Amino acid sequence: MTAQDMTEIIKRTDKTGRQPGHVTQRLLFFGVVVLQIALLRYVTALQYMPLRDSPALLDQIAALVPAAVKASLLTGMVALVVLLARADKHRRWSQFEYLPGASTLTLNVASFLTLAAIFLWTRQAGGGDTYWPALLMRATPAIWVGMLASWAGLVAPSRAWREAVARNYLILAPVFLISFISFHSLDAELAGRIGGALIGPTLFLSSRIYSLTGETLSVVGASPEGYPIFGSGDFFGQINPACSGYEGMVLSAVFLGLFFYLEPRKMTALQMAFVILLSCVAVFLLNALRLALLVYVGVHLSPEIAQEGFHTNFGLLGVVVVVVAAVISTRFVLTSEPTAEHVKNEPLPDVAIDVRVRMLLPLIYLIGASLLCGLFSGKFFWLYPLPIVAATAGLYQIRDHLRPLRLELTPTSVLLASATFLAWLQLVPAVPQDSETFQAALFSAPFPLIVLWLSFRVFGAALIVPFAEELAFRGAFTELAQAKLGVYCTESVAQAGAMLIVAVAFGLVHNDFVAGALAGLAFGVARWRRNELGDAIVCHGLTNLLLCFYVLLTGAWAYWL
Known about the structure:
Layout: H1 3-14, H2 22-44, H3 49-52, H4 57-63, H5 65-86, H6 89-94, H7 102-124, H8 131-155, H9 158-210, E1 218-222, E2 228-232, E3 235-238, H10 246-262, H11 269-300, H12 303-333, H13 340-345, H14 349-374, H15 385-397, H16 399-402, H17 411-427, H18 432-442, H19 447-485, H20 491-508, H21 513-530, H22 533-554
Antiparallel strand pairs: 1-2, 2-3
């Protein structure tokens, strides 16, 4: 079977016009709500906290948002439970048999992207304690109203909510007030409490692991915030709640939950919970190992490598290893065949999925090699050529799938690439200090090494990285998202929705979310214009090439950090 035949199989698979049961629809939209809540919680951190100490009334109102949102979510769940408990059998199900309208979906996407952009921008600007970040945070209460309204519309029709409030307001009002007061008093310390509770066990395990080297890892004091300072010899560091591994546990649980949803050979709820729990335990143990190795590298090898490269990359690599191991072991254990309904609705699913998985290989090689090389890198990433070589090997491995691609320089690709390049310069200004540090490290090397590194940097950014990322995002991920959305809406709406979802995902994997999401949207439009994946690759490559020329001509090296 040729690559062209496989492409046709994917297209046939994605255009099925089936309509699933209402239970599946409800689970899908409920899953979207849960995922958006988790992402917003992750990007928000404690950015509302500076507003609580402000004397301004608007700041005080904005500081109430986290508690109000949580109380609203809790009250909404109680409202649905009470409504269903009081409804008769017929009304219990019929009132939920509907699909959200276009206005609800539009409000949901707009509110989510706006909130995520504000939170990520204010985080980079230093939180809500300066003028513009504080001003943006004051505007979030109104946006949160739209976000909550869209979540309500995704979960149940408006008539169900009106009935729930009208019939049960004597129950719902105390629930909201009590939960609001409780959440407002606890929200400031919630993240610290979760991570802080894990600091003790993490240090205990790390010290036991480190003792295998014949040395002692000890706590020598505490930071002004009360977090322990630990280390050995001449190398010491602070462990805060984020170092306890709870973020890695959340990420592994989210990724595995998504896998279980997409996996055609279904598991029971108990089996899924067991795998997720086991994965979280594995992430916790690897995090304890990370801290022990961090101290060992800092004492015996290089403090710079320990603090810059090893500290971050080992944690991400640990999460990736745990998730991949869980997925592989789960697929190995599951021997049951897909359900009859799935086989009926998904013709030749194994072939279509295999094509998409193979399209991910270059990006997997690129990320894996970057994390491994990052373990041994300091402030300057001298090992950058190795991930490029790894991604090139991945592209060669799937060369049969690359031959049908049409790589043409069209006016649309040039226009979108130029606009994306200019937008990136405006949204991600280069920090002069970072550029100076980068330049000093680069030009301290011998001239042949400088030329070799710069050649790989331009070659990788303009050619290899666009192929690897576009095959994954505008290729495999877009096709999977469109196939799932095609179950619930028309083909044009599914294409637009898949483009937006993948653009958001593309922004999340970049340092600047807004710039990355806009770039992902532009590359998605480039593919959509002629339905050619090659157009997205060309647009992405041209954008990166323009940025390379700009960096080399102006010395704005910070764009390559």
